[in-house]
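Late entry, evening session. Most of the bench is empty. Finally got around to the prediction I had been postponing all week. Sequence below, unchanged from the version circulated by S.P.
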Amino acid sequence: MEDQRFLESEWDYCLVLDACRYDVFADVYDEYLDGTLEKRKSVGSSTPEWAYRTFTDEHDIAYFSGNPFINDLGIPLNELKWGASCDYEWTASEHISDIHDVWKTDWDDDLGTVPPEGLADAFHRNQDAVERADRTVLHYMQPHAPYLSRGKGQKLKQIQKGIKRQEEEEANGGSDDDGGLLSSLSDSVRPKIESRLDDSEFAQKAGLWLELDPKDLVTDGTRVTALSMYEENLRIALESVAELVEELDGDVVVTADHGEAFGEEGVWEHHIETYIPALMEVPWLEVE
């Protein structure tokens, strides 16, 4: 399997689908897009790690980011207080020339995330930035949770709230409250996590349960329920991607920063430096 070679590859527009597994993408993509698909190996198993290991120099890119880890705040990843959980001394704005914080401007409170059309809208509003830059990236949050068909999201909403808190703290001279993601989990789930933090798989699943319907969990179990919602999220994203691709003049690639785990080797969701196939194998589609 070839390495992703994100920046070394030829493209004018790269559409990044956050947490997109290769196998699920391979099953459905041709209903929306034509092109040549390869399986490639990512450089990281989470967005902070992928960004840190991908953007190592200064890059002339118009980056439309639905993911709050890649932002124009000027704060290093290791100093973020809302769940990065890494020691990477990497700041997006020091490596990427023009970042558009779509996670802020086009956030949907009801969904608890940035819907795919938010990326397209931001792209259309900022055509001057696209024309100035050497290349353009649109970083979609889907198929990453929250799952849009449920109509509400919890985990990413807590991160977005954490960002607002940290910006306020920076403006007011700082605070001792770390505003971490765990401290913001719902009262019904948090005690279960805190009582069994030594059980990694349980804690991961407890976080995932925030995004799922309890009735479906009882009927089908966590893996079947989550995979079904995940595939639906991917399809929603691909519908929007397919519409945008029709407008783009140049070489277009669709890929992912990392994958998503649904219990493989005891891992759920995605975590830094967790090198299993479900997280490291990503699609690389050169669109016709």
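Two things to note before I forget:
Residues 152-156, 176-200 have pLDDT under 50 and may be disordered.
The first helix runs from residue 22 to 28.
Will write this up properly tomorrow.
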